[in-house]
Amino acid sequence: MTQSDQLILDRGAQTGEAAPARQGGSAGASSAALGGAGDARGERAARRTLRAQVGRLERQLSAIVAERFPYIPASGAEGHAFEAGGEEPSCLGPSLLGLDQLERTRDRLAGRLQELRRLAAERDEHERSAHELLRLMKLEPGRFRDVRLPVSDLGQGGCGVWHVRPRLGLIGMLAGWWQLKLSSGCPLPMGSSPRGGPDSWS
């Protein structure tokens, strides 16, 4: 074997050993890239799920407040993301909430929803009791002398008041004649007083 043939064999051996090493390095880089892409897809999916949950909770909160207003307070029913999470954004420009912030927002809205549902149930019970009281006042007004029941307790708008009072004033009171009347209950408008003295009124 000549010296040139030996050099060709040595170069071939070196090339064959280096190729697997390069292939192994490429495979490791590909695995790392695939792992990073998988993590990013998982985070995006989790973000979509959390945002959908937050949106659903906000819609439920708004529905309860719209149905029960003004008897259920609207404050805090709908909050911006950083307000609901109890944190201010870390930067002044636009930014995406992290997964932990979205989770805190969801949990806070879920707690607020439970609170509003409890208030709505209490309000329903209050109105049922008021309707039952009104029914009894109509049947036997003498049992509920001077009882006043605002229409707002019945879930109705306005400032009217159901009032059991004597018929014909003092005579009715002495005779036991009682009746149920609905008064406006609204304060009288305060007009401007006339200027000048009585001479200027004519």
Explain the overall architecture:
Helices cover 58% and strands 7% of the residues. With 202 residues, the protein is mainly alpha-helical. Among the domains are: 32-87 and 98-125; 140-186, no CATH class. A three-stranded antiparallel sheet has the order 1-2-3. Helix 1 packs parallel to helix 3. It is rod-shaped, with a radius of gyration of 39 Å. Mean pLDDT is 76; it is low at 76-86.
Helix content: 55-70%
Walk across the major sheet and give the strand order: 1-2-3
Count of DSSP strands: 3
Question: In percent terms, what proportion of residues is strand?
Answer: 5-15%
Report how far the terminal alpha carbons are from each other: 143 Å
Mean pLDDT value: 76
One letter per element, helices H and strands E, the order comes to: HHHEEHE
SS-based structural class?
Answer: mainly alpha
Overall outline: rod-shaped
Layout of helices and strands:
Layout: H1 3-68, H2 81-84, H3 99-139, E1 148-150, E2 161-166, H4 170-175, E3 178-183
Antiparallel strand pairs: 1-2, 2-3
List keywords for this structure.
mainly alpha, 3-stranded antiparallel beta sheet, 3 strands
Gist?
The chain has 202 residues and is mostly helical.
